[in-house]
Amino acid sequence: MRRSPAPVLLSLTLLTLFLSATPAASWRPWPYLKTNHSDLVLGNNKKFEGSSEFVHLKYHMGPVLTADITVHTIWYGTWQRSQKKIIREFINSISAVNSKRPSVAGWWKTVQLYTDQTGANISRTVRLGAEKNDRFYSHGKTLTRLSIQSVIKSAVTAKTRPLPTNPQSGLYLLLTSDDVYVQDFCRAVCGFHYFTFPSIVGYTLPYAWVGNSAKLCPGVCAYPFAVPDYMVGLKPLKSPNGDVGVEGMISVIAHEIAELASNPLVNAWYAGQDPTFPVEIADLCEGIYGTGGGGSYTGQLMDDHDGSTYNMNGIRRKFLVQWVWSHILSYCTGPNALDQ
């Protein structure tokens, strides 16, 4: 069900829901956990490791993004041009038709398999939209989940070059630089998605937040290009684009865009009985990047000529992106799967 600007009562109801719920979150791999270990239960969200025995993914009749998807980006804090370029090229690669296999576009084909109640598939097209720079930290360097929505409000209501408001096919991607702390960052999440409330933003817009963990917790949110301090002797993999923090963000961005497309209002595709704690198509494959992945093992990956590790090709770059759940195959899959 799509919500448009609403009366005060509905706005207060939505605000109450937000405060009592946890936005759908992107967990990162915890290398010491074993497949289907009891410790895979983190809070109220279960880290499935790709076993169909435990997965009951269902469609709950809500909308998915069937119209061409436009990603509007908010760069919050201090960003280097090179960092922006890596992220832009990844988003542009989602719909690229001429990328070398295995490709990011091939990864998106699994996401496209999900449909709405009319049988319409998620759109093949994902494109970059407008961008907004918030280099002066307009809401400070410590953000809560509610203040994230205020940052989005500032971007869509700015006096100069406001971001367009497109609830039907627009996604709003808030990216925070490595000197910004967001509520539960590193401790519980590396990114999450939800939807904005009319009482705060003026519109119901699907959005995601992803943080750069380079200074705060690279061993958690940029794994396997960084490893936790307690894992003595384990060497991190070499990143294909030379920026560990941004490299970690790429897979989380992919995770959130896939879930926003298939569950934008948290009432479409997810597993579990509680919509306030949904387990979504990327949650089911957290930490799996290749065939055989699960637990502490990322799966079979590829090495580039310079020794860097990746599993997908973009337009001009290589990336490491986690797999997503296929409800057709009933397991996690990606374009680099050895059984394809």
Automatic annotation (TrEMBL):
Family under the similarity heading: Belongs to the EXORDIUM family.
Provide this UniProt record's keywords sorted from A to Z: Apoplast, Secreted, Signal
User: Which residues constitute the signal peptide according to the record?
Assistant: 1-26
Major location (coarse): secreted
* Pfam annotation, one family: Phi_1
The record's subcellular locations are: Secreted, Extracellular space, Apoplast
Coiled coil ranges (UniProt) are: none
Is Cell membrane found in the keyword set? no
Please, which domain of life does this record's source organism belong to?
Eukaryota
* One GO location term (cellular component): apoplast
Q: Does the keyword Secreted apply?
A: yes
Designated name of the protein: Protein EXORDIUM-like 3
